[in-house]
Amino acid sequence: MSQEKSSVGRPKNEAASTALKEVALNLVMQKGYDAVSITEIVNGAGVSRQTLYNRWATKAELVLDAFFELANRRVEMPDLKSQTSRQTLLSDFLKQIFLHLEKDGDSLGSFVSAAQSDHDFREKFYTRFVAPRADIVRKLLKDAQSRGELAPDKNIELWTAFIHGAFWYRLINGQPIPQDLANEIAEEVFR
Amino acid sequence: MSQEKSSVGRPKNEAASTALKEVALNLVMQKGYDAVSITEIVNGAGVSRQTLYNRWATKAELVLDAFFELANRRVEMPDLKSQTSRQTLLSDFLKQIFLHLEKDGDSLGSFVSAAQSDHDFREKFYTRFVAPRADIVRKLLKDAQSRGELAPDKNIELWTAFIHGAFWYRLINGQPIPQDLANEIAEEVFR
Amino acid sequence: MSQEKSSVGRPKNEAASTALKEVALNLVMQKGYDAVSITEIVNGAGVSRQTLYNRWATKAELVLDAFFELANRRVEMPDLKSQTSRQTLLSDFLKQIFLHLEKDGDSLGSFVSAAQSDHDFREKFYTRFVAPRADIVRKLLKDAQSRGELAPDKNIELWTAFIHGAFWYRLINGQPIPQDLANEIAEEVFR
Amino acid sequence: MSQEKSSVGRPKNEAASTALKEVALNLVMQKGYDAVSITEIVNGAGVSRQTLYNRWATKAELVLDAFFELANRRVEMPDLKSQTSRQTLLSDFLKQIFLHLEKDGDSLGSFVSAAQSDHDFREKFYTRFVAPRADIVRKLLKDAQSRGELAPDKNIELWTAFIHGAFWYRLINGQPIPQDLANEIAEEVFR
DNA sequence: GTGTAAGCGAGACGGTACGTCGTGTCTTGGA
DNA sequence: TCCAAGACACGACGTACCGTCTCGCTTACAC
Fold first, then answer.
1. Do chain D and B touch: 3 or more Cβ pairs under 8 angstroms?
2. What's the pTM value of the predicted model, to 2 decimals?
3. What pLDDT score was predicted for residue A106?
4. What is the pLDDT of residues D59-104, one digit of tens each?
5. Strand locations in B26-148, DSSP E?
6. CB contact under 8 A, D167 and C165
7. Pick among B169, B170, B187 to test the A interface (most A CBs inside 10 A)
8. How would you label B45-81 residue by residue, b for 16+ Cβ within 10 Å and e otherwise?
9. What pLDDT score was predicted for residue C5?
10. Domain B74-189 - what CATH class?
11. Residue B135 at interface with chain A, using a CB cutoff of 8 Å
12. What is the pLDDT of residue C7?
């Protein structure tokens, strides 16, 4: 990746990328994805229009990049080597997610929104945000099965969808996602 | 309140509303919500721009109205007096929903999209589309409990969210919703 | 004129006409002809849109009607039987015109404006406002000639144009029309 | 001050300005000022709507610019060094004006019209079109006085107004301006 | 140390859609 | 037959954003 530097001509100003991502993310969090214009972002970043287009093809790509950088710094894989019960691990993991959901709910709404009309965006959002989190749950459930904490014939795929569906469902419908929901879900999973 | 016809001034031409809804819905189903412009809709309906704005404040409201009219003609409450097992009733009900989801997936995506940026819209969408369907499932589960087909200590609210979350989750992530998923869900509920 | 009453159906409400003319004239004097809309006039008069169109075909006709009613009440034919010098008569007549010009300057501007784009309007404005005033001057000059106060070979038509041109020229260019101009003009005519 | 080229950013495309002016002027001459829409002009010029608004705030300013460019190429200052009688010079100058008036009468009407409702426009029209022509006449009259061809006590300002008023008066009233009027005016001035 | 190629700001450009306004006509029910 | 109320088709308005383009200037490496 560091290899592909053409080393000819003036190098890209990394500060511009940083400024763009920061401004874009802030604006989207404040006003929602659709309400933010490219013009607004580049003005806010003190950067020219073309500079943005030199780095990202669309607003969607820029904003996603910015968001992921933030979000992925915050996923904390549960420690499957610990002896804590898998129910507790699940509950704690969900609580951690719900905490961010509280803060980022509106931007996430924006992304869900953008994902519906822009299939590229949807793919990226799924691959880089949704799927990794689903994977963690999936692994946790399998681990629980192998440890005998979960019935061996539980449909893991379905339960992964149940768990994530439960809070996405509340999210897109604008309902609050209380910390307690994490406990309720974990309890029902391991019943 | 339902009588509030003002009867003063020229009455609104109902045919215009009908034409607008039909054209709008068709276009959205063909090209997606965002790709359809107001100009396109009014031209297609042979109606003036202002006439649309006299009836709906935004494209979202128009399309929503049009869609509900269609969708609500298609909800079929399961017959709780029948002796069919509640698991089968649930499975059949979900299958029926999934069938429409297949066809209307993109428009539904549009609505979810619009709902994220427009909270009025979200409220309407929830009240008129999401909630009624959730209610049916909730009633069905309670009925199953009272008939002893479902454990009496199952968390009905949570399971309602599980069930709907499962397919909404797939929907917003652009994944197919196979008919078989209905069986899988029903099975897991009544396990 | 009073003959042509059809006497079938509800008679026209004369108060509506009066209100329309009054409102129209006031609005035009305040904001200028172009800035006043039909909608504004009918709302101001508390009258329906159709009622206006039942009486006048265009805004121009209504406004002209209203203006003429006012203006023609104010023309005062100089008394050609008096022994006052014709120069004084002319000067006094012009002074009287200039006085109204001061007040009505902007609406007159509006009419000149409307007259340029609407040839019907131009014709009516000329026939009912400009020409009568020109006629008076023409008659006065001829009378002065017959009394020997004016050179018999003066080109009356041209001088009529000179005299009116002089202040219309100032009017359309937005220059003030001082009372003293009346004296200057009269002096130069009878030099 | 004439050097104030900013030289930053993409420079304005001069061809677009030229095309806009040409199309605008042609359309106005064909159909009259009011009948020409901005949409029509930009389409005709193959230029985007915003490009027009980047250069002129209103249709009036554009058309005025276009017209001046044409008109000012056509003013021909009479040669005050020639020995031709000043009466002939005046008559010839007026004839030259009347010739253009014939062709441009309707556009000029449009400008007079616009000038009445828009005081900025009025100022520009006066400064750039009316006043220069009046100045020429004023100078010519003064020269005639200094050469003894005109009575030294003639009120030059008033006569300048007489002369221009005479044909403007006919113009705004939609009356023809025959070439012979130039002779009549000159004759009366130098009588 | 100079040439050359890319980066960059500023901002113009062709497009497309927007929501609003004004026009003159039409359509009701009631006077 | 008139009227108030207001819907309607039409067409223009000025604004907003998009993604691309065209300048003059500024890097920074490669010769």
1. no
2. 0.81
3. 73
4. 989 998 998 888 877 778 899 999 999 999 999 999 999 988 877 7
5. none
6. yes
7. B169
8. bebeeebbeebbeebbbbbbbbbbebbeeeeeebeee
9. 46
10. mainly alpha
11. no
12. 59
Judged by CB atoms closer than 8 Å, whether chains meet at D112 and C116 is answered as yes
- With b for 16 or more beta-carbon neighbours within 10 A and e for fewer, the D51-88 pattern comes to bbeebbeebbbbbbbbbbebbeeeeeebeeeeeeebbe
Closest residue in D to C134 (Cα) is: D169
State, as a whole number of angstroms, the distance between the CA of C37 and the C1' of E21.
Answer: 10
pLDDT in tens, chain D (191 residues): 334 455 788 999 999 999 999 999 999 988 888 899 999 999 999 999 999 999 999 998 999 899 888 887 777 889 999 999 999 999 999 999 998 887 777 778 878 887 877 777 788 889 888 999 999 999 999 999 999 999 999 999 999 999 999 999 999 888 999 999 999 999 999 98
Contacts of C68 (CB under 8 A, 6+ apart): C128, C129
Q: Is C155 on the interface with D (CB under 8 A)?
A: yes
Q: Where are the domains of chain D?
A: 14-59, 74-189
Helix and strand numbers, DSSP H then E, in chain D: 9, 0
Q: Is B91 in contact with B78 (CB distance < 8 Å)?
A: no
Chain F nucleotides near the protein (CB, 7 A): 1-30
Q: What angle do CA A16, A108, B162 make, to 5 degrees?
A: 155
Euclidean distance between CA atoms B60 and B66, whole angstroms: 10
Query: Which residues of chain B lie closer than 8 angstroms to A122, CB-CB?
Result: 173-174
Fold of B14-63: Arc Repressor Mutant, subunit A (1.10.10)
Q: What CATH superfamily classification does C14-59 receive?
A: Homeodomain-like (1.10.10.60)
Nearest by Cα to C90 from C129, C127, C144, C132? C144
Q: Give C2 to chain D, closest Cα distance, Å.
A: 34
Mean pLDDT, residues C48-61 taken together: 92
Q: What is the pLDDT of residue B6?
A: 58
- In CATH, which of 1.10.10.60, 2.30.30.30, 3.40.50.720, 1.10.260.40 is domain A2-58? 1.10.10.60
Q: What is the percent of chain C with per-residue pLDDT over 70, rounded to a whole number?
A: 96
